[in-house]
Amino acid sequence: MFVAATSRQENFVDIDVPGWAWLVLVGIILGLLAIDLYRHREAHEPTAREALIESAAWVASGLTFGAAVALAWGSEAFGEYISGYLIEKSLSVDNVFVWALIFSTLAIPLKYQHRVLFWGIFGALALRALFIAIGSALISSFIWVLVVFGAFLIFTGIRVIRHREGEGESAVRGIGVVRRFLPVTEEFDGQKFFTKQGLKRAATPLFGALVVVEFTDVIFAVDSVPAILAVSNEPYLVFASNAFAILGLRAMYFLLANARQRVHYLSHALGAILIFVGLKMVLANWYHVDTFVSLAVIATILIVAVVLSERKTRRLRLIGDLPET
To answer: What is the pLDDT of residue 255?
Structure first.
């Protein structure tokens, strides 16, 4: 029923990635993280202007690396990279709103949230690398895994469209699990994750928030990693696109955390993207969708969602159902 596993690889770009290219990629990621950590070494509340500038800088970094991919391996490799980048970036928007819910529920001060997100994203990069390695190995060894991944993404996409309300509450319950294994103080101790409570060492609410953030990333990675594997078969491109999209999430969070009420059709867009890449995966053994066609479909879905959301926002403001921001 199924063709050989190597047939799917023929549908994607085949590039030779030397070991030094991996070292360069990891070096760039660690360097950017070090710069970000240094810039935010003192706890402070980021302004909207600061978040906007940082978001633009992170996007520029991702696009610059994409340009390097195009120069090194050609337009097809760039198409796969940028498709993966857009998928991860769009799916991550929902993660941003879940983080906002977590921080609000746990009453984490705005000035300490960057520290939680920094280490949360650092852990997310390691987790995504593991997921990508496992996913790529499974697909290379067992071609039927494509159909399983694809069907899962289609199911998830339908669920995303139909049931978005209250999604984050289950993640917030994770703080109760943390308290079962580790004492968590009610008070903060600056930016510390651990402090002393009498003679005993205890976690601060920041560590509890970090654990919950990591838990939510596991949930989102289950969706996003298979989705990116639907548009590229090359682990280097998959990890690079994933990493650069994730690196900009902290700035995106401070820019968009309070904008959920404006993005009315976010769930529809995310669901449509998941369904599209799921169908692409299921049909991969019989029909290949060109990389740039996939890119155009994903970009169109996002643009339509933004345009329709803005129109609805204006209508709601005209009738007084949405306050001016």
So the answer is: 73
State the average pLDDT for the chain.
78
Residue (of 223, 214, 225) closest to 131 by Cα position: 225
> Considering only CA atoms, which of 19, 102, 80, 100 is closest in space to residue 230?
80
Reading the block at residue 301, the tokens are 């879905």
Nearest residue to 35 via CA among 95, 92, 118: 118
b or e along 185-203 (b: 16 or more beta carbons within 10 Å of the residue's beta carbon)? beeeeebebebebeeeeeb
Q: Range with the lowest mean pLDDT among 12-16, 176-180, 293-297?
A: 176-180
Q: Phi, psi (5° rounding) for residue 272?
A: -65, -40
pTM of the full structure: 0.76
Sequence-distant (≥ 6) Cβ neighbours of residue 317 within 8 angstroms: 323, 324
Q: How far apart are CA 275 and CA 278, in angstroms?
A: 5
Residues 6 or more apart in contact with residue 41 via CB below 8 angstroms: none
